[in-house]
Amino acid sequence: MTSVEIDVLVVGAGPAGLFAAYYAGFRGLRVAVVDSLSEPGGQISAMYPEKMIFDVAGFPSVKGRELVGNLVAQAAPFDPVYLLGQPAQRLETVGTPGAGGGFLVSNDTGLSVHAKAVIITGGIGKFEPRPLAAARDFGGRGISYFVRDPTEYAGTDVVIVGGGDSAFDWADTLHGSARSVTLVHRRRAFRAHPATVDRARTAGIDIVVEAEVTGLHGVDRVEAVDIRSGEFGERTIPCQKVIAALGFTANLGPLLEWGIDVKNRRHIPVDSAMQTNVAGVFSAGDINDYPGKVRLIAVGFGEAATAVNNAAHFIDPSRPVFPGHSTDAAPEPVAAR
Ligand SMILES: Cc1cc2nc3c(=O)[nH]c(=O)nc-3n(C[C@H](O)[C@H](O)[C@H](O)COP(=O)(O)OP(=O)(O)OC[C@H]3O[C@@H](n4cnc5c(N)ncnc54)[C@H](O)[C@@H]3O)c2cc1C
């Protein structure tokens, strides 16, 4: 049971949501960020943490993972409450939002957040990693869906399952520091970019095609995996870390039931204040929609600032929408107030 009382709840810890967390802190608001994923960063962390991004203002180029790290660091002085690994399933109105009331966001696993305003930065929806069937009984014991910290893999035998860009990016990142890296893919063709595949082959990464991981062994943690392939039949190899890079499913699912207008079951229409049709519920980033919308990280940042500043004014109409300039008011962490 997690119960939180907050000024602003941000639903979605992608780049737009993380910047909204910073901005809410800057406006002196207590903020929580909920995400169904166990990692902040949204699409960046789930799909391209090792890729360079070239169109974020002020960064000629920045690695996805570093951009997410910087966004988390930027919000950190304001101590946002991160509710990760928690889907936001329900939204209810409590009293009159904007006049002492607000919203209750909850889920079936005991999350309950009371907020005066809500900012939905849900991107393309609630992400869930596609599970590796053979690893069903090994959750958290040597099997992961993200590479959080590449140093954790140093000196270990790693098996990566998948044939997309993430699988190859991680193989590339870990090759050299891991004792061995074996990439297992069930088809002969890969979804990853051909140049990425060539780089992995040239680097000497062991790539097993038309194969699948059929079993995991180990007492407390994974110690070995069974691989079945058309080429060599069944084989058991030592392995202490399995990375299931099988992709993610994304689903707007619960948000469709929140009583908010949703266009084509994908996008939330907003006005120029980034407010939805429900007063006190704002939206920024890929999930929102208005004429001329462009779905880019840089655009989501601006929308997050607009949404938070209008939410601040909604919560307390005596506060101006314009926040002033950060250069005039160095961030004062919430804890110091
Ligand atoms: C391979 C690839 C490369 C890209 N390259 C670029 C690029 O170079 N430049 C660029 O500008 N953009 C790029 N993009 C697009 C960019 O990643 C998105 O525009 C950006 O991530 C949108 O950010 P967001 O915060 O709006 O949403 P997202 O990043 O999608 O984050 C939304 C978060 O909300 C969470 N969520 C949703 N619903 C719920 C719920 N009900 N409960 C809890 N959590 C929920 C999700 O789990 C997710 O973590 C790329 C995208 C991809 C896939």
UniProtKB/TrEMBL annotation:
Cofactor or coenzyme needed: FAD
The catalysed reaction is: [thioredoxin]-dithiol + NADP(+) = [thioredoxin]-disulfide + NADPH + H(+); 2 reduced [2Fe-2S]-[ferredoxin] + NADP(+) + H(+) = 2 oxidized [2Fe-2S]-[ferredoxin] + NADPH
Q: How is the cofactor bound?
A: Binds 1 FAD per subunit.
Annotated binding of FAD, by residue: D35, Q43, Y48, A88, F127, D286, T327
Q: Which Pfam families match?
A: Pyr_redox_2
Per UniProt, the keywords (alphabetical) are:
FAD, Flavoprotein, NADP, Oxidoreductase
Q: Which SUPFAM superfamilies match?
A: FAD/NAD(P)-binding domain
UniProt key word Phosphoprotein: no
Entry-linked InterPro entries: FAD/NAD-bd_sf, FAD/NAD-binding_dom, Fd--NADP_Rdtase_type_2, Ferredoxin-NADP_redctase_2
Every copy of the FAD/NAD(P)-binding domain together lies at 7-298
| Enzyme Commission number(s) of this protein | 1.18.1.2
Family from the record: Belongs to the ferredoxin--NADP reductase type 2 family.
Q: Subunit composition?
A: Homodimer.
What protein does this entry describe? Ferredoxin--NADP reductase
Record organism: Pseudonocardia yunnanensis
